[in-house]
Amino acid sequence: MKVEHIGIAVKNLASSNELFSKLFGQEHYKVESVVSEGVSTSFFMCGETKVELLEATNPESAIAKFIDKRGEGIHHIAFEVEDIYAEMKRLEAEGFQILNPEPKRGADNKLICFLHPKGTNGVLVELCQNIK
Ligand code: CMX
Q1: How far apart are the CA of 97 and the centre of ligand 1, in A?
Q2: Atom of ligand 1 minimally distant from the CA of 124
Q3: What's the predicted TM-score (pTM) here?
Q4: 63 lines ligand 1 (CB under 6 A)
Q5: Which residue's CA is the nearest one to ligand 1's atom 35?
Q6: Is the CB of 46 under 6 A from ligand 1?
Q7: Is 7 close to ligand 1, i.e. is its CB under 6 Å away?
Q8: Sign of CA dihedral 37, 39, 41, 46
Q9: Could you give the C-alpha distances from 18 to 12, 21, 31, 49, 112, in angstroms and in order?
Q10: Along the 132 residues of the chain, how does pLDDT read in single tens digits?
Q11: Minimal CA–CA distance to 86: which of 13, 1, 8?
């Protein structure tokens, strides 16, 4: 439906919040931890799209591994879908590698799933659906 958010891996959420507040001329509207993903996040509105900053909360977190290997930067692009189950089925049939067979609960009241970046030109793609 649209680019719902862009996820950016950062080493330090507090200092990155300050930086992005200056960049956008507005504060983040939410801070949220997702324990299951090992991340602490903050969200900024940027028109219709959000920017999600992600800091690792443990060394096993996907964000910690990403920063170790590639440094800070864009980690994923999240596309909003109406029916995540139907989209996962469709994309699996198209040959994409779905990283979690069942949607999981992500930040910002969403059901989420990821596609492996090796099958999407090196970009980690997230699908997300609002939990009603
Ligand atoms: N974007 C692009 N490429 C990525 C990547 C990313 N975000 N993360 C890892 N990669 C690349 C690695 O650089 C590596 O490339 P090379 O083989 O060329 O070196 C390759 O993918 C495999 O990486 P890996 O280190 O062997 O595998 P990982 O154990 O790091 O797993 C991934 C990578 C994408 C499968 C894993 O991070 C994952 O399952 N991610 C989905 C969940 C997630 O990212 N959660 C955090 C965000 C949660 C949220 O938004 O709330």
Answers
A1: 13
A2: 1
A3: 0.96
A4: yes
A5: 116
A6: no
A7: yes
A8: negative
A9: 10, 5, 13, 19, 27
A10: 899 999 999 999 999 999 999 999 999 999 999 998 999 999 999 999 999 999 999 999 999 999 999 999 999 999 999 999 999 999 999 999 999 999 999 888 899 999 999 999 999 999 999 998
A11: 1
Residue 107 CB less than 6 A away from ligand 1: yes
Q: Is 119 in the pocket of ligand 1 (CB under 6 A)?
A: no
Q: Residue 25 corresponds to which amino acid?
A: G
User: Residue 20 CA to chain centroid, in angstroms?
Assistant: 17
| Nearest alpha carbon to residue 12 among 57, 77, 75 | 57
Q: Is 122 in the pocket of ligand 1 (CB under 6 A)?
A: yes
| Residue labelled with tokens 């801070």 | 31
62 CA closest ligand 1 atom index: 37
Q: Which residues lie closer than 8 Å to 54 by C-beta, 6 or more apart? A: 7, 8, 9, 10, 39, 40, 41, 63, 75
Are 105 and 129 within 8 A, CB to CB? Answer: no
